[in-house]
Amino acid sequence: MPSIVVNLMIIIATIVLALAIFEVYSVYMSSYALTFLQQENVIGLSKLVSASISQVSFYGIPPSYNYFNVSYIIWIKSPTPKVTIIPFVISPQLNPFYALPNGNQNATLFYSTTNGYNLITRFQFNNNVYLPQQGQLLGKVNSYAFNITSNQTYIISAKVRLGQIIIIWILDYFNGKWYRLDYTYLNPTNCGIGVYALSSSGLYDTNSPTLTGFPQPHISISQTGFQIGLWFSPISNATTQSIILNATLGPTGSQGNSGKIFSIVIYQLGYNLYLSIMQSSITTFHTLLYSLSQNTFYFLNFTSGSQANLANELNISIYSYSGKILNYTKKPLLLPSEINGYTLNVTFGSPSLTDVITQAFFETLKNQGNLGSTSFYNASTVMLKDGYLYNNTYNYTWIIAHSKSLYAIGYWYFVYQSSNPPSQIYGLLWVSGKTTPYYIPEIGKNTYVIL
Question: What does the pLDDT look like over 369-383, one tens digit per residue?
């Protein structure tokens, strides 16, 4: 009898223990099944989320132009009415899949209205972020985030350096956790982001008959005064003569009189800058101007003309980017005998891709018996002060409009802040009393390099 009781008690204990284990197992399995179901929901949602991105547009940020503002139009497709976005800029990594926002995001989101773009309200995001698969922790993120409506278009704007990429996270909050449903990255450099500058140009003929509305000669140097200036930089060693500027002057109405045509040629050989004066293709003067440094910008200008006290003479100066004068002619250089009424043909650079030229100008004085020094020298001072990348179109419009002593100002701006710069660029020509410029056509095509 006692053995029967003992056996019964053992059976009861076994059944109770089994029921307890089964209940624990059931609770565990139901919890696991719920977690698994939630995980499947997140994974399923991540498969339905996608992003469409437009082509990039961008422009350089002065004065260094080492940074660029880039913009994309984005469209997030999601079955949920709202999604959370975290955009951020990083330097490329081996695997952007695991990249986390680090430091300054340099990226924001905008939406378009009839009054322009408005910034989407951002909020501080300070949470763990998980991957849908197995709920793996991606990392702790402290960054700014944006809540947007899915299936609508927005503008993402970012500040990037060359080589940096933009990563966009698409997040969702599910059952107490933040999950990264999807991500994409944008590489603006693939679109040729940067500042393009001229390496060689076609021919600019300032006596072109296409300059309608302004009687020839368009550029009358005459016995007054003229000045030419430009920003340039050597980008490689010149193993042969690499022309930076060829300014050919010919008498008006007598371009065929080769005995009176002469050229002022500035060129690089090695890392040295030279000046040659040529008449009828024969060099009449040659001199070393300065020893250059690679990837350094220089401002060069020269002046001639009787009203500048330089009849049949030429003064040339070279300045650093900071405005320091590096070299100038202590004794004016002799030019061929001047006749009344020269016109100008000019080319910039050479096909050897040795130098870049970002902008250039020329100006001439009226034959009024006075130099008009304020406006005459202001043109070169403005270009030197504003630097090699600044567009001075507005400044030269103002100068010509407020000067009674200038006959004309010509200007070229050879900087282009996106890929595929135009093959030709018109020069601008302002004449006395006009604030609207004429266009100096170009014969030939331009070649560019990226800075």
Answer: 555 566 788 899 999
